[in-house]
Design brief:
The structure holds 2 protein chains of 2 kinds.
Chain A (H helix, E strand, L loop, with lengths): L3 E4 L2 E4 L5 E7 L5 E7 L5 E9 L2 E4 L6 E3 L9 E3 L8 E8 L7 E2 L3 E5 L1
Parallel strand pairs in A: 2-11
Antiparallel strand pairs in A: 1-3, 3-8, 4-5, 4-9, 5-6, 7-8, 9-10, 9-11
Chain B lengths: L3 E4 L2 E5 L5 E6 L4 E9 L6 E6 L5 E4 L2 E6 L4 E6 L8 E9 L7 E2 L3 E6 L1
Classes of the chains: A mainly beta, B mainly beta.
Chain lengths: 112, 113
């Protein structure tokens, strides 16, 4: 089945730790995205990538980093510099700029 | 900053009612307007989408109305069912060439049985 796989589904982070969220897609999409979802704030763009080895900052990139070494993979690292990382993180991909974006099932990150 | 404003924040209707969710944008340079449906703990899924050369689009019980001059678009759900209870997001993609989906803040819909 084609789709986007995010892992893990739940992730707990201690203060001061970096954690990496995985996102893999087998849809052969060029573009991939990371969004953060908080209650009442919709989906806010963290980073996006239009092509391998290239990515752009979104609206809330501070405290996050990404890489795009393979077309299928777009991992997100939440660094210790992100002061309020507890949120639901969603990865998405699309063929083109103005076509459907397909979302993964999300990773819920909690700081303990 | 480009924005898409969505209202209402929450909505409760009786089964069979027609909830309407509205979105407005502040930048004319958008060319694709999708609506996403999200159930708790899941990722959003595309429900229906429209482009600005069309004023209305229907898919099953879901209809998008688009008013280009007013920079507004809305989602209507006909004969709503309890299974439609979810959060709905409107979105828009800018024509600038950057790969961005600008999302509204979401509407939590509850359909009472």
């Amino acid at each position: 089945d084609g789709g986007i796989t995010q892992s893990p589904k739940y992730l707990f982070r201690k203060e001061g730790q970096n954690v990496t969220l995985s996102c893999e897609q087998n849809l052969n999409h060029d573009a991939m995205y990371w969004y953060r979802q908080d209650p009442g704030q919709g989906l806010r763009l963290i980073y996006y990538s239009q092509i391998v080895n290239d990515f752009q900052k979104g609206d809330i990139a501070e405290g996050y980093s990404v890489s795009r070494e393979k077309k299928e993979s777009f991992p997100l690292t939440v660094t210790s510099a992100q002061k309020n990382p507890t949120a639901f993180y969603l990865c998405a991909s699309s063929i083109l700029r103005d076509t459907e974006a397909f979302f993964g099932q999300g990773t819920r990150l909690t700081v303990v | 900053q480009q924005q898409v404003k969505q209202s209402p924040q929450s909505l409760i209707v009786q089964k069979g009612g027609i909830p309407i969710i509205n979105c407005a944008y502040e930048n004319t340079a958008f060319d694709y307007f999708p609506w996403y449906q999200q159930f708790p703990g899941k990722g959003p899924a595309l429900l229906i989408a429209i482009r600005p050369d069309v004023s209305e689009k229907k898919e099953g019980r879901f209809t998008i109305s688009f008013n280009k001059s007013a920079k507004q678009f809305s989602l209507h759900i006909m004969d709503s069912q309890p299974g439609d209870s979810a959060t709905y997001f409107c979105a828009a993609t800018p024509t600038s060439g950057t790969y961005k989906y600008i999302f509204g803040t979401g509407t939590r819909l509850k359909v009472l049985a």
